[in-house]
Amino acid sequence: MLKCKHQSALIRPSLTARSVGLKVLTGHGAAVDTTTAAGKLVFGIFAALAEFERELISERTVAGLISARARGRKGGRPFKMTAAKLRLAMASMGQPETKVGDLCEELGITRQTLYRHVSPKGELRPDGVKLLSLGSAA
């Protein structure tokens, strides 16, 4: 979706060229009638205020995320695979009698997650190494 300043730059001239105006009949914007000079002014002010508000919200959101990171908070969904689950998966995958479907169900992960971290022989893959290094740093 386009921002308001882009919309007014693209839409307003094409509507004006076709002699199309906007007239609000009820509600708080009842004074807006873009067929008059005063209405165009009010419409422009409303558009500028809406854009300003969006930018303020964006700035506050970014500041909040930075503040949360500084306090040690992380966003996003927690990983399903933990260091403990990974160690169990490595031990189980090294055994020939292991059924992958049962192991995944027991650990609460998908096959894709399992194989992304551990090879069929039970050896660590790069994502598994990364997970264990993050787990030891905590």
UniProtKB/TrEMBL annotation:
The record's listing under Gene3D superfamilies reads: Resolvase, N-terminal catalytic domain
Please name the Pfam families in this protein's record. Resolvase
| Protein origin, superkingdom | Bacteria
What is the recorded name of this protein? Resolvase
Entries under PROSITE patterns matching the protein:
RECOMBINASES_3
User: Which organism encodes this protein?
Assistant: Pseudomonas aeruginosa
InterPro entries this protein is in?
Homeodomain-like_sf, Resolv_N, Resolvase-like_N_sf
UniProt signal peptide:
none
Any one Gene Ontology MF annotation carried by this entry is: DNA strand exchange activity
Identify the residues that the record assigns to the Resolvase/invertase-type recombinase catalytic domain, covering every copy.
1-72
Homology family: Belongs to the site-specific recombinase resolvase family.
